[in-house]
Structure formats: C-alpha cells, structure tokens
Amino acid sequence: MGTGVGSALSIGNKMQADTVYGPLVGLVAVAVFIFLPKFYEFDANVSSGDQDANMFSTNMEESYPGMARILIPLGVLLSLIQIKNIIAIVISNEKLSKNRFLARLFLGSNVQAEFRIKQAASYKVNQMISNAYTLHKEDEKSSRQTSVKKAFKTTTTEVSTQESALMNFTKISEKTEEIGGLIWAWKEVFTGSLQTKEGIWLHTRLIAGNMAQFIFIFVVLGYSIMVLGGIIKEVYTVQFSPCKSTFDYNSCYFPYSEVETYTGTGLCLDVELDGTTNENGGNACDDSFVPVGGSLQTNTCNMLNELKGIFYSTDKCTDVLSAADDQLNAQGFNVSGLHGCEKLLNLATIYGDVGSDIFNQTDIMTCTDYINNVTSAVESSFNASALSEYSLCMETPSHFLRFIDMCEIQVFQTTSVIKSYEKSYTDETEFCESVLSYCVPYFNNTGACLIGMRNLLPFQFEGVTCEDYPDINNILEYKDQITTLFPEKWMLQLSATLAIIVGFFVAFMTAAVYIPSAVHTLLKFRSGVIPSLRSKSFLAYRTNLEHVTLMIGAMFWGMIVTTLLMIIVVAGGVFFLVWQVSRPYVIDIIALVIGENQ
Q: Phi and psi dihedrals of 416, rounded to 5?
C-alpha cells in the first residue's frame, strides 16, 4: 500500500517530461491520498482477534491529530511542484529563459548548473591568463633594482620574459593556497560560487542524501521529545477515573516472574465495576476503557487463560460441576454439547447487540431449549443439597468463563486510574486498595482484570488491611526492598534532555560535514595534494568506482549509529551520576581522585 501511494505521488516529476498527463495524475493522487483523508469521514473496521467489532465513523483529525496538521502543508507543496511541472511543459524553454526569475523557477537546477559551469570555465581561463602574465613580469624587488641601476648608469643585463617566468615559477612553486572550512564550503554552495568559480558540480545523490539527513534529524528530534515526554508523563502523572471497582482476593492469582520474584501485579476473576454515572449521564466505567489489539491483546488474554486454569484447578465448583456432568451423562445428555451451548450463549451475551450479527440465531434458540431441558432434568433428579450446590456454582460470575477462551473476547485498557478495593473492606480507613489496568468484561459489569499496575509501575497496593492477605502482604514487603531502585522524575528528565541535546548536536555536525568534506577532497585531488595518476592507490580508485553506490547507506546508518551511541553514553552517564543508587559510588570516586591530586 505504501509503495503504491508513494509511486502515485511521484508521477509527473520526470526531468524530460513532454506531456502534462503525468503531472495531472500526480495532482489527482495528491487530492486522493493527501486532502481526502484530512477532510473526509470514513468508516473503519476495528478487528479484535478473529472477531470483528462494530463499524465506527472517524476522520483523520480525530484519529491522528499530529498527522492531520502535516497533511495540509505537504499537500500544498506537492500540488505546487506538479503545477510547476505543468507550466514547464506547456511554456517553451526559449520563452522561460528570457526571464531570469522564470528560468530559475521552471527550468530546473541542471540548466542553472550548466550555465555556472561555463562561467567557471571562463573564470578559470581568465585566472590562468592572469597568472601567466604575472609569471612573465619581473617581480617588484627586481624591478626596483633595475630602476636604481639605470638611474646611476650602471651596467644592466636585460632579462627575457622566459627567464623571468622560470625564475618566478621557481620562487612560487612551493606556495600553497588555503581554503576555508565548514562555513566557507556551505557559503560557497549557497551563493553558487562553488560552481561559478571552482567548477565543482556536486553529485545529486550526495545532495539528496545530505538533505534527507537534515530532515531526518529534525523529524526524529521532534518525535523523540514527544515520545520521551509522553512516557515520563505516563509514568509519573496520575489521573483518577470516577469509576470504582471491587475484587475478591480469593479469585485472584499473583504471578511470579522468571526469576521467582513477585511481578507486583495480580490477575483477578469476578472484578465488579460499580457503573457510576458520569457528568454526561452515561456510565463512567464505559468511558474509562478503550479496546487494545495486536500483541498486547494476545499477551493479556493468554495471561487471563493461565489464571483461569489455576483458578478452576482449585475451585470447589469444579468438583461439583464435574459430578453433575457425570450424572447428566448417565441420563443420556450430551455433556460436550451442553458446554458448547453454554459457551455460545455466554459469548452472545458478551457481544450484546453485535452478537445477533455474529452468531446464528437458530443455534442460539436450539441451545436455549437444550439448556432448559437440562435444567429441568437437574431439578427433578438431583437431591436438595446437590441442587443447591449446583445452582450456586452455575450462578457465580466466574462460571461464565469456564468454557470460553479469553482470546475470543476483546481486551480493554484503562484510560485513567480506576481504584479497586478488596470486597470485604468496611469503611474509608479499613481497606486494601489497588488499581485496574487491563480488563475483559463478561457479565453484568463483571470482568477478569489485571490489578496492581498504574502507569506502567507495578506494586500498586495500599491500605491498612492489605497485610491480612498473604500474597498482597508479600508483594508489599518485596516492594519495600526495591522501592529505593525507582528513579525520580527529574532524573529521567535530566538524562533524556541532555542526551537529546548532545545527540542532536552530534547528528547535525555529522550531516553538516559531508558536503564540505566532498568539496575539500575534490580540491585536494585537483591541486595534487592527494595524488591521482601517480598514486599507489590509483588502481584501487579505478576498480572501486561502484563503491559510490554505498554512499546513501553509509550516510544513513553512519549517522544513526554515531548518534545512538552518543545518546546512550550521555544518558547512561548522566543517569549514573544522579541516580540515588549509584550516586554514593560517584561521590566516593570523585573524593578519591581529588585526594590523590592534593
């Protein structure tokens, strides 16, 4: 898709174009791919796993506000380029060349460069003649001596111009001429003197690569500031939601990491959302979640599936329902079909109105009748005690998920901090509190949720009664051991700011020396400072001409590697200096160095 869009937008930019069809197609491509997404509302199909959710209407301004602001100037620029191409084709070069401004605007850089190279030839010829004339003249010192001898009528010997030229050439043969550095080279490029005086025509590949470097630098700089600022804000800024929730400690699993330590989070079934009404009259909990997708959806639902397996392996209802399945199987009921029907009806309940478009209504009606028959058989054949236990297990929210793969349900992420309390809390002072981060809703404001993580930071449990729950208490004890490792906000900001500044300076200077380096190398070859025909490397020069094709790659990767290395070194060094864990060691090292120098 991207290749097609890029190709369509590039149509009409051929240097020797002789028809306006290409630029016209390019203008149409600009309208379709640049202006249309900016102003036209389109339907987007949001997919979750193997199931498709609702269609929703959106536009570029709402979905990608940053990109929307770039589209207008980009579209205007591409349109002006195509209009310029059309004018250059319609009006002849002879007419355009009569006006200096029009020639500069529409005839392109090649015509200007050819004209400047011819100027350089004239300039060099004039300079050569001037230098030859200077060589054949007597120098100022010899001229004064001859005048004195003539004044005192002493004997003088006439020196031919050839002899003067040879003597003058010998005197100045070791003379060198200095050229400017980086600023001089860029000044020569922008004023055009590099072509009109030196006759150097830089390769288009070099100019394009260098300009791409500068554009890349400023784009990455802005993007880096935005991303790092967003991460730091995400981690350290807390925005609470009016939605509240409760969790049951007995329905939670607190996993370990690969190094056998608490991850600081918990996976809980049957988390209940209170459905508080927001300021607009809607459900505050509905406004506090957004759907996720991709690898995050997959990883989260796999964790919840793991939680289900652990939970049901210790759930007393597992034995009750297993015994009921054996009894129903003995009565001739298809237990596998029963479980399939339960899964179908539960998924239809989760998807609500959308379920009527996803699931076959005939199957839903058939399953409903079949479950009613099973319920009647249970009520008539089970004793009172077994029926009571069976009914209680069937009505628990967690049973709703027993036969459902969690990856078949959309995972949602919280947009703000949702507090969650252990359901046995008594008042505002006696409670154990955590926060929600990811949830899979499934029944009557109930869901399976990940608790304990806020803004990417785990171990978010607090409250007087948290010590009454063994796993939560262990998490808090482990948190006390590692809390001293968490850096403060200003440490990250300082490290990131200095790293970005140094990285930008290094990248900018790396890009700025390419063209001056090429200019200086050409002048050294031209003047013989770098030998060519007599150089021992001449054969290598001849056989390695194709290495010029590596220039774009070297410019791109060289700058990235250099810049990233400096960013890592600076960020790591600054962070090591200010981090509360490493700061004492830095002070000790500085004290030792100062003490040795005294």
A: -145, 170
